[in-house]
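Workshop exercise sheet. Pairs work together: one partner reads the sequence aloud, the other fills in the structure field after running the prediction. Swap roles for the next sheet.
Pair: D.N. / O.F.
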Amino acid sequence: MSSIDPISMAQNLATYEVQPFQKRYQAQTDKFQGQITAYGKIESALRTFRTAVEDMNGLNDSVVKNGATFSQEGNISANVNAKALAGEYQVFVEQVATSHQMGIDLGAGTTADTAIPAVGTMMITMDGKTLNLDLATIDTDSDGTTTLQELTNAINNDENNPGVNATLVRANGETHFMLAGKETGVANTVSVNVSGTGDAAFETAFASGTDISTPKDAVIWLGAEGTGMKLTNASNTFEGVIDGVDLTVTKAQTSGDQPIGISVGADKEATKEQLNKLVESYNALMSEIDKYTKVGSEDEKRGVLAGDGTIRSLENQISTLFRKTYGDKSLYSVGVSIDRTGKLSIDNKKFEEAQAADPAALNEMFNGTDQLFDSLEATVKPYLSFSDGVFKSRKDSLQQNISRVDDKLASLDRKYKMSYDRYLAQFTQMNQLMTQMNQTNGLFSI
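Structure field:
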């Protein structure tokens, strides 16, 4: 009678007892994890879609993008928002705004390590704000010598700095100290006064600083130079001078030049580009929903969210909003439609015709209060909240299900261990008995 292997027998029988449960629990875990993944994919696609909507529905945004073209490039640029009215304008750029830059001559041989007075006060003022710097406090390495580099660092790092950059400029073997206003305009003139140092030359150098660049306001004329409306601004950007248009000047014209023509109107290419983003994100969202909710067939695997009423409700709510009538017009009438496959498309020719015929009405359909974009944002918001959104709640619930299955698997591991130990003891005892019987049989065979 041959012996048996107690370990293999115990493993086989213990595995046989728990294997059906292991397969069932693993299938449950795989199902729950697949659903979590599916919710995550749909949620990501929905966030991308909402971003596309938000990009066209901000405070100064619109489904119709506006732009500006210029009769002459290089002097002026424009940022045109959704509120801009189409029109023709003329602007003459007399002067661009500049910041104040002043150089301080501290004498030949000056370097970053040149010692400066370790007592006294430096007062830097700009636009009504003042920095009072105690020179006795800027020796940061505590070596007993206050250097020009330490002065530079102290000015730039002081929390009360009024908006001035201190710089060491090196040219032709010499080091020059420079103060420069961060902002342009006459109001941002920099002034500096040094006192109480006991070093007359040092104080005089700052008192007699040389302007490298004088501060100027930007000056433009709406219309021709000298006869139009003169406007000045500390910054080179004139905000809202024309409704919905911010003008930024970059280069002054020569006196006597013709004003620059500015044509403000719809930017068809930019409008088309953002509409395409909306279409792409909508169709990507619907593709993800269809992928995970398909009912399946002999040739197609059933989606892990098939029969999920919440996801189908989301799909229906969004698609219904694109089929509604806003005001007295449907989106289809302006070229926006959903085809038989559920995909969104834009008829650019129809849309451009609607834009040309009545841009205000077109804008109202999409951007008006409680119209398409507002309705879309209200629809998707409950799904995407990070604290209590539908997707978060669903994924949390599924994760809890996985945790419960993990507990069952842990219990199953304990059951396996108990069965294994029991079978091992039984087969070990049986093996011992068989060994004894073989030995006894051997005695009778002599």
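Discussion prompt: The longest strand covers residues 174-184. What would you look at next?
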